[in-house]
Amino acid sequence: MSAATYIKRLVGLLGVFAGFTFSMAGMPCAAEHIPAVQEQTGTRIAINLASRILTLYENGQKAAIYAVGVGTRRTPTPTGRFVIQNKAVNPTWVNPQNTQMRIGPGPNNPVGKRWMGFYGSYGIHGTNHPESVGKYVSHGCVRMKGNDIEGLFSRVTVGTPVMIYYDRIVIDRASDHTISYYIYPDGYERQPLTAAQVQKALRGYGVEDFETPAAIAAKIKRADGKPTYVAKAYSLYIGSQKLTKRALGKQGHIYIPVFSVAQQLRVAAQWNDKQRQIETSYGTAPGIIKNDSVYADSRYMKVLFHMQGNLTSRKQYVLQVIKTPSDTHSIPATTPASRE
């Protein structure tokens, strides 16, 4: 049996780490419970087994992202909240079935140049097979490429929280508030997905209206782990009052949820399906329907509500009542309104 077969089976073995003897005999086995780690704003590690990505957070912000190899379906990596329990440089790998069989530091060592134990026999470590990183390949440990594990090792300490979870839906918000989402394959066959579930996840970011159920269903079928851009989501305010729905930016335009604004202002509004336009007591303007919600380009807020908007430096879209009298008659659409 090859040395790599025994990577996970490290409970109770002795190894030589960075010039001193290290024993895991006193550590809890994989079946024991470790108290949940309270969320912190300091340094922490998050590992998504579905995406096979490890994210390092520092001061509450993403500091680094690494590809990792994780456990197979038969020998999955455990999920839960843990902490880094021990760290070791240049570990000597010992065969747990035959302690006379050892592989010292070097290119043939299955755990590479760094080890960080987080739960019983499980750890985050290097590998002598970097091509396996990004796959379901291990007996439960988390593999990283050489430079990656060395970089991570230098940035975390014993006691650093580690959260490991399995979620095929990954939603990312960039610094400019661009929302993208990813769907990963169900490697552990434990998370079947529906379009409604993904749309619910997008709702948490305020962009659910801008992705159709059909598009989501097609993406679930592909499950290729590639990003799909949805929209830029901005918190929407009328003066100092925050609305539930968001203003959404796409293709150089900012779209406003018309009926949310109308309700807040107590202004009568209706959708004229035949004319593809919005009608209020102030005027009419073209609109679009997104998943049964009506939106209008922000430039029509003056016509529909006698308001004008501004995107602040904090990425908040604020509507204010226009203080000077102005013409609020209907503005003709420059392009045909469409159902998207």
Could you explain the architecture of this structure?
The chain has helices at 146-153, 195-203, 213-222, 258-265, 301-305, and strands at residues 14-17, 20-23, 44-48, 53-58, 61-67, 70-71, 80-83, 86-89, 93-94, 102-103, 114-119, 122-125, 136-138, 142-143, 161-165, 169-173, 178-183, 228-238, 241-250, 253-257, 269-272, 277-280, 284-286, 288-290, 293-297, 307-311, 316-321. It contains 5 helices and 27 strands. It starts with 13 loop residues before the first strand and ends in a 19-residue tail after the last strand. The protein has 340 residues and is mainly beta. Helices cover 12% and strands 37% of the residues. Mean pLDDT is 85; it is low at 1-39 and 333-340. It is elongated and about 85 Å long. Helix 2 (195-203) packs across helix 3 (213-222). The chain folds into 3 domains: 3-165, L,D-transpeptidase catalytic domain-like, CATH 2.40.440.10; 169-232, no CATH class; 234-321, Copper Amine Oxidase, Chain A, domain 1, CATH 3.30.457. Strands 16, 17, 18, 19, 20, 24, 25, 26 and 27 form a 9-stranded mixed beta sheet that branches. Strand 16 (169-173) and strand 17 form a beta hairpin.
Q: Can you tell me the residue ranges where pLDDT is under 50 for at least 5 consecutive residues?
A: 1-39, 333-340
- Classify the fold: give the CATH topology of the largest domain: L,D-transpeptidase catalytic domain-like
| Cα-based radius of gyration, to the nearest Å | 27 Å
Major β-sheet annotation: 9 strands, mixed
What structural class results from the helix and strand content?
mainly beta
CATH architecture of the largest domain: Beta Barrel
Q: Which CATH C-level class of the largest domain is it?
A: Mainly Beta
Please report the number of helical segments: 5
Cα distance spanning the termini: 58 Å
User: How many strand segments?
Assistant: 27
